[in-house]
Sequence to fold (497 residues):
Amino acid sequence: MGRRTALYELHLALGARMIDFGGWDLPLHYGSQIEEHHAVRRAAGLFDVSHMGIVDVRGAGARAFLQRLLANDVAKLTRRGRALYGCMLNAAGGVIDDLIVYLLDDGTTYRLVVNGATRDGDLAWIRNHAEGSGLEIAERTDLGLIAVQGPRAREAVAALLPPAQAQAALAIEPFNALAAGRWLIARTGYTGEDGFEVMLPAAESPGLWRELNARGAISCGLGARDTLRLEAGLNLYGHDMDQSTNPLESALAWTVAMEPPGRDFIGRAALEAIRARGIERRLVGLVLEERGVLRAEQRVVVPASAPGAKAGEGRITSGTFSPTLQRSIALARIPVAAPEEVLVDVRGKLLPARIVKPPFVRKVNA
Amino acid sequence: MSQIPSDLKYTKTHEWVRTLSDGAIEVGITDHAQEALGDLVFVELPEAGRKVGAGEPYAVVESVKAASDIYSPVAGEVSAVNAALSKTPELINQDPYGAGWIARLKASDPALRTGLLSAQEYEQHLAAEDH
Fold:
């Protein structure tokens, strides 16, 4: 038996097909993964992401600590409620985890939201580096996390709030959060759609789920979450990057703040050395030109990019069938020098795929 | 609980087999198999006329989750394929024993149809796989 969220019983009651995900029992789908996917692109869907770790870092030195801990710079969080995406690296520049950090007050309280499969290791790493700092590091196991995503998502949440709070919630800017009573409502997500992620007392999450269901938001499982995030070109930790890969070869250079040069974050020296000698591999998007499905671990054959250059090889890190595009898409790590077309070994057949810059699917403003 | 029609035969690899009036057989995947695979997104069908051996993979069904080979229950020849699956693979999810049929085969020796399970035996096989 895996770990369970406060929504476990409700998932069963709603007919979810449960799977093990990094030690957690979570819904894969509630009937049709593809219908759930389309519901999020067209209206609104709900995801139980309570398995993700919520860690509050509090104290006078919190900002300086996070500037050392994270490859992105929390100095960019200039206002209460702002959010920042970035990586936590090891000394070699490998990705320990990717996370979102929120500023909860005027500079002494930050909230990290980390991946479910890595939360125990992350917490140990954070506590280890915080030792002797006097900082309070609190894992908020008392909180649940529900993602409400899609063009109708924000209004569905707002409809449940008192009028003043509803208005304030609808005014939250992208990548910002607002405290509403015991809830923290963030305009963030992992689907490429507009929406909220709501952190709330775990015991209140089944009630919120049912009310959002009643307002037309469809229950969605991890299956749809994966196809949605891949269409949006968002990396999945453990597949598209991990401790053996660095952000520069994971299409995450934009999340690494090399300025100011004096900020000595963990992994900086390693990244500077890697950048100086040049990366050898990069993460790209692939669209399969023929029928078939790209899957993680498939071999990518990269023809020589110029006469005299050597042919290379890469690997798909995430692949799926895109319900929106009705063709297969993938992320793949391949040699830096590559032509626009590669071949993928799909069950013994070499099929042509085109290199594209994600996202594969762009949000349509309703 | 998945549907297991009593008038069909089954394989341990989760195909069903229906004997047609002309002696040919029609095959598809079971309700249990389609449910385990999830939404089907792609079906690779063989050419009509292709010779197949018993137990040989001759088609592939792919869902959002995984690819799965379809094995021939008999030695023989593919006499027809369900071309509708190319555009609408979800027919397998919607109607696995009807509109979601995959292929029709002519067995080279109709008498040599060993190893097929009855509905009851297939149900026992599923129960055993669960443990």
About this structure: Residues 165 and 180 of chain A are 7 Å apart (CA to CA). Residues 119-130 of chain A form the longest helix (12 residues). Residues 8-48+142-231 of chain A form a domain with the Gyrase A; domain 2 fold (CATH 3.30.1360.120). Chain A has nine helices and 19 strands.
